[in-house]
Design goal:
Radius of gyration: 35 Å
Number of strands: 20
Distance between the termini: 39 Å
Structural class: alpha+beta
Shape: globular
Strand order of the largest sheet: 17-3-19-18
Number of helices: 24
Oligomer: single chain
Largest sheet: 4 strands, antiparallel
Length: 704
């Protein structure tokens, strides 16, 4: 019944969403029918996936529904900006998969029948989602009777919205099932042969101990090699796939940072001095701090050793009502008042019963259950037995709720306050991020003198005048520099710092600038060398504590970058290639007629060891990823010295000292291992291959 109650408690929110979406759809539909040029279907298109148009109202409905599901699952009533971004992205990924794979499933004849769904929901093979929802937390077993009772209640005692939520769960079960069928189908077509298994075993079994000489590419200066234009173009033509790029914009910008001035600092100090007499005379320190301070009152008691030296000396040599300060700490001014002294223990033994709101449906239901259990215990019921039956803190529930001894700082604050400030054997109810706690302190340690301080904190922040002054500077800069050339000239003339940022159309922020999505959207609505303007038409973006003025420096379109765009990168690659050849030639000359140690000496380097290397090794100790070198080591004969090998970080000479053969001859087991690895890859790569085979035009950035 807890599941149905959870659905029931969240139904009101779901109804509001559905009504709201219906209203939006009605309004937008009316505007479309009236022929509005602003809201024609093409302009409401949020994506085109495999030829299918996705309209903004439909996609937004998906987002809102997923947000509602998120709230129901987490107990949240509101979503912050970051969570909204995650919900929108999840809705997008689900939509893409649905459109891409629906045709694939249909062509293959893959479905989930009603009999299959019945079996997974209430039959012999319950789906993991159903198992999770109906598992008894005390026994760990799934209660099938509870499943049947719930489904019966759903038919007779649930609203349409609650049934809609249950249908969402069923849809998730069907989607997971059909994905599994597809992945298994692909995986069954991928099999490692006996020959592959034998080769893999041979590679695993054969281990070599080798020596190597390494010369890094820095062994030769850049000036020692030259590159020609034809070499660069030849390299580009052979490696074009290395220069694939996503669509992006690069902006150049300056910031006018709003910082508190000396006058703001002085005004903050004056405010503290002015309220000091009032603070000294108030009776309710907590209320005064909560109303006037930038940080709320902390109901904590501290020993002398837990306080900074200046506060410890003041507090433990003073009396209740004494005030210390104001004094500055970082970017804040503080006034500290002695609120109360108490003799308190430095450790407590306690037990508790934890009730999670998501299990019983809501915080209100959890509080009601805690109050009911409290009354039962006060009437003589066993705390330990009730903890074993009701507590969702599995570790302590097995011990009758006993938490043992703990010191300050080991528990969350609300719990700690109840345990340390409460009387032994009394019952207290409090809430934390974990749920509702019914707490009973059972023993307390030795009491010591502790103090509770009321601290009035005021941050030094920029005043309206400071904002206006900085905004005036930004306005002057914009007024005098309205094109790209003058923008850059002014930055140089005024010795300002020009910053550069590159981002994609769907990125949420420019690094270092708060809430800068508006700047990204503006960059995609502008041309190269345009000064950016916000939605109100201003060239000044207010982002956190910065006024920002920006221009589009360059635009990169999706595809293969042009030769000129990547020429500097190609020059580095070709120089590295030519260096490798030149260093390899020096190595060949050094080895001629010499042993390995003499060759190293001639090259002014040393011989190093690489032991236990197999063909499956991914790196060389202390060097890193060097597949060409590892491949060379494992294919040489014992005592054989290689030709120079150009690796990732330098050029190598390799000599095998010894080889060891392993004893694993189980070809069948190796074949099974390889097949399992192929199966894991199929689950991800099969969908990615299908997605890459269709055209996806993502226009979300126009709307979010």
């Amino acid at each position: 019944m807890a599941t149905l109650q959870r659905i029931r408690n969240r139904a009101g929110l779901l109804v509001a969403i559905i009504i709201g979406l219906a209203l939006v759809a009605f309004i937008l539909g009316d505007m479309l029918r009236s022929g509005s040029s602003l809201l024609r279907p093409q302009q409401l298109e949020v994506a085109e996936i495999n030829g299918e148009s996705v309209q903004y109202p439909d996609f937004q409905k998906r987002i809102e529904e997923m947000a509602e599901i998120y709230k129901m699952n987490t107990g949240a009533t509101q979503l912050d900006d970051e969570t909204w971004v995650q919900v929108r992205e999840q809705a997008w990924q689900n939509l893409v998969r649905e459109i891409v794979m629906s045709e694939v499933y249909e062509d293959l004849g893959l479905t989930v029948t009603s009999d299959e769904l019945f079996d997974m929901v209430q039959g012999a093979n319950l789906h993991p989602i159903i198992q999770q929802l109906f598992r008894n937390p005390q026994t760990g077993q799934v209660d099938k009777t509870a499943v049947l009772q719930f489904l019966k209640s759903l038919e007779t005692n649930a609203t349409a919205q609650q049934r809609a939520y249950w249908l969402y769960i069923e849809d998730q079960i069907k989607e997971e099932r059909i994905q599994t069928k597809y992945n298994n189908l692909v995986a069954k077509g991928l099999n490692a042969t006996t020959v592959e298994a034998k080769n893999s075993l041979e590679a695993k079994n054969q281990s070599v101990n080798a020596q190597y000489i390494r010369l890094p590419f820095s062994y030769l200066p850049d000036s020692a090699v030259s590159v020609t234009e034809s070499e660069l173009k030849d390299y580009y033509n052979k490696h074009k796939d290395d220069y694939k790029q996503e669509e992006s914009r690069t902006i150049e910008y300056v910031t006018f940072n709003v910082k508190a001035s000396e006058a703001d600092d002085a005004n903050t100090l004056k405010w503290m001095e002015d309220v000091k007499p009032e603070f000294a005379n108030v009776a309710d320190n907590a209320q005064y701090v909560n109303v006037n301070s930038d940080v709320r009152f902390e109901n904590i008691y501290q020993k002398e050793s837990e306080l900074p030296v200046n506060l410890a000396e003041f507090a433990f040599n003073g009396e209740e009502g004494d005030i210390y300060g104001p004094y500055k700490e970082g970017n804040t001014y503080k006034l500290v008042k002695i609120d109360e002294f108490k003799d308190l223990p430095d450790s407590v033994e306690a037990r508790h019963i934890l009730i999670k709101p998501e299990t019983v449906g809501s915080y209100e239901a959890a509080m009601a259950l805690a109050d009911s259990l409290k009354s039962e215990i006060e009437d003589g019921a066993s705390f330990a037995k009730l903890a074993e039956e009701y507590s969702e803190d599995a570790g302590s529930a097995r011990k009758g709720g006993d938490l043992g001894w703990f010191k300050k700082g080991q528990m969350v604050k609300p719990f700690e306050e109840a345990a340390f400030n409460g009387e032994v054997n009394e019952l207290y109810t409090t809430t934390s991020q974990f749920g509702v706690h019914l707490i009973q302190p059972t023993k307390k340690g030795k009491e010591v003198k502790q103090v509770r301080l009321a601290t009035l904190i005021r941050n030094v922040e920029p005043s309206t005048q400071t904002y206006q002054t900085e905004y005036a500077k930004a306005s002057k800069f914009v007024a005098e520099n309205q094109d790209y050339d003058s923008f850059n000239e002014a930055i140089a003339n005024e010795k300002r710092t020009k910053k550069i940022a590159t981002f994609g159309e769907n990125d949420r922020e420019v690094r270092g600038l708060e809430q800068s999505r508006s700047l990204i959207r503006a960059a995609y609505d502008a041309d190269v060398e345009d000064i950016l303007h916000n939605a109100e038409g201003s060239a000044i973006f207010e982002l956190g504590d910065n006024f920002v003025i920006a221009a589009v420096a360059s635009a990169t379109e999706e595809g293969i970058a042009s030769f000129e765009e990547v020429k500097p990168r190609i020059e580095l690659a070709v120089k590295k290639q030519n260096k490798g050849q030149a260093i390899a030639k020096k190595m060949t000359e050094a080895v001629d007629g010499k042993d390995f140690e003499a060759a190293a000496s001639a090259l002014n380097t040393e011989v190093k060891d690489a032991n236990g290397i197999t063909f499956n090794s991914t790196s060389i100790p202390s060097i890193g990823l060097e597949p060409a070198v590892i491949g060379t080591m494992t294919t040489l004969s014992q005592d054989e010295t290689s030709s120079p090998v150009v690796g990732n970080s330098g050029v190598y000479l390799v000599k095998v000292i010894s080889k060891t053969e392993g004893s694993d001859e189980n070809v069948q087991a190796e074949q099974q291992r390889l097949n399992q690895a192929l199966s894991y890859r199929a689950a991800y790569q099969a969908y990615e291959a299908q997605k890459n085979a269709v055209e996806i035009e993502d226009k979300r950035a126009k709307f979010y």
